[in-house]
Write a structure and sequence with these properties.
Layout (H helix, E strand, L loop, with lengths): L8 H20 L4 E2 L7 H6 L31 H11 L6 E3 L4 H14 L15 E6 L3 H9 L3 E8 L2 E2 L1 H10 L3 E6 L13 H8 L9 E5 L17 H7 L6 E6 L11 E4 L2 H14 L5 H10 L3 H31 L5 E2 L8 E4 L5 H10 L2 E2 L17 E4 L6 H23 L2
Parallel strand pairs: 1-12, 3-4, 3-6, 6-7, 7-8
Antiparallel strand pairs: 2-9, 4-5, 8-9, 10-11, 11-13
Helix pairs in contact: 1-13, 3-10, 4-5, 7-8, 11-13, 12-13
The structure holds pyridoxal-5'-phosphate.
């Protein structure tokens, strides 16, 4: 099979006819498949059900240090949960504050604190004429939704294979004090599965921003979400920031949403002491304490990082065949045709398909009409604007393998048709 770009117009038209017939056959099946969001499957959620047997009417509800989990108090979270989250986040327990059920919620609150009260004694962002934010792209749509909600101007930063373009970041932050932050998903990034190299982490920690209140939002959402035996490692950003004499530069976030239950786990923020004291001034007004019973359940279920590891292997066993099947289908159907490229992540929740320029929205539209809901084209970009209209985030976790197989087949038919439409004059 020749590349589509090497086919004559007649050959392109013939190929399109064949694929259009296949497409119609899929349409006739009236399928309803949803590939749009990176949710764990029911099978994955079932893995964590024993967590409910951890506490019963007879359980000791006090923590190791005597804190009563059923009562108010303990703003920073119970020690056992601080310990568990510090292992997941690869930092010190005393750097961690365990909050409610969602890291995204903590990120929103952290941006809101910068906006309302300011960081490090600087002017609150709400009082500034302009606030800008760096957004490595493609990235997590809900990050961009937060900074858009606060009215910040978002600046796209291209991603390389080992993390965001550091030359561009260093240049921008050193010159412009209206740039106040950057979104980072340093391990198995959403949506490309990229792992930041040591050099990128070090350069990030060594940034010299013009704004004293510039902060890195280090969303370590997929810290332990390996698909394979080989576990990618990243440097500890809090440590690197200390080494670089930049200890207040970073807030790190993580949760157990994709370890136990999405929306029913525990979430945490980690930072240095100065940031922590500032954070607590607001937190102490916001709440008397988060859900310590859920923290206790989690901490007793996962006694140490090895038990988290064992648990994540079970997730990987369910997820790996799904990822591999989608990638194989893309290789089989799109490889020879030279129709786009795709990532083969070693962890995380997404595969990114980079379609030929100007075809992503059309692929999503075609897929929808054949019963497959994909994440809208443009979603992984600020303002939903993909300058090349080429990135599609594929989320293989939720559907059962058989449904995913159908969705992947339909997807590659749509991708080829959209490309052929472009090539046929
Ligand atoms: N951060 C990233 C990069 C994600 O992909 C997700 C969910 O998809 C979240 C955060 C949401 O985390 P949480 O459930 O802890 O709010």
């Amino acid at each position: 099979m020749k590349k589509y770009s090497e086919l004559s117009q007649d050959e392109l038209i013939k190929e399109k006819e064949v694929l259009s017939n296949e497409y119609k056959q899929w349409q006739a099946k009236g399928l309803k498949l949803d590939m749009s969001r990176g949710k764990p499957s029911v099978e994955q959620l079932n893995l964590s059900m024993p967590i409910f047997d951890i506490l019963d009417g007879k359980s000791l509800m006090r923590c190791m240090n005597g804190v009563e989990t059923r009562n108010y108090g303990c703003l920073e979270g119970i020690v056992e949960a601080q310990h568990l989250m510090s292992e997941i986040m690869d930092c010190q327990p005393e750097q961690v504050i365990v909050c409610g059920n969602s890291s995204l919620n903590i990120m929103f609150d952290t941006v809101a604190r910068g906006y309302m009260f300011g960081f490090g004694g600087c002017t609150p962002w709400c009082k500034l004429e302009k606030v800008k934010w760096l957004c490595p792209v493609p990235g997590y749509d809900r990050h961009f939704a937060i900074t858009q909600h606060f009215g910040f101007e978002m600046i796209n930063i291209p991603m390389n294979d080992d993390g965001p373009d550091m030359d561009m970041i260093e240049d921008l932050v050193s010159k412009d004090d209206s740039i106040k932050g950057i979104w980072c998903v340093p391990k198995y990034s959403n949506p490309q599965g990229i792992v930041y190299s040591d050099e990128v982490v070090r350069r990030m920690a060594n940034l010299k921003p013009a704004a004293k209140d510039f902060r890195i939002f280090w969303d370590n959402a997929y810290a332990v979400h390996h698909l394979y035996k080989e576990k990618c490692k990243i440097l500890n950003i809090l440590h690197e920031c200390e080494e670089a004499d930049n200890p207040s530069l970073v807030f790190e976030f993580a949760s157990t949403s994709k370890i136990t239950f999405a929306g029913g786990g525990i979430a945490a923020i980690a930072c240095n002491n100065a940031n922590r004291q500032e954070l607590k001034k607001t937190l102490t007004v916001q709440t008397i304490g988060f859900d310590k019973i859920n923290m206790l359940r989690h901490a007793r279920y996962f006694m140490d990082v090895e038990s988290v590891d064992e648990h994540m292997k079970k997730h990987a066993k369910i997820l790996r065949p799904k990822f591999e099947m989608v990638i194989k289908t893309m290789e089989r159907d799109l490889g020879d045709a030279g129709c786009g490229t795709w990532t083969s992540p070693k962890g995380g929740y997404f595969i990114t398909y980079e379609a030929p320029k100007g075809t992503a929205s059309r692929i999503v539209e075609l897929a929808k009409e054949a019963g497959v809901i994909l994440t809208p084209a443009g979603a992984p970009f600020p303002y939903h604007m993909d300058p090349n209209d080429s990135i599609i985030r594929f989320a293989p976790s939720l559907p059962p393998l058989e449904e995913l197989e159908q969705a992947a087949d339909i997807f590659t038919v749509c991708a080829r048709i959209a490309y052929l439409e472009k090539l046929i004059l």
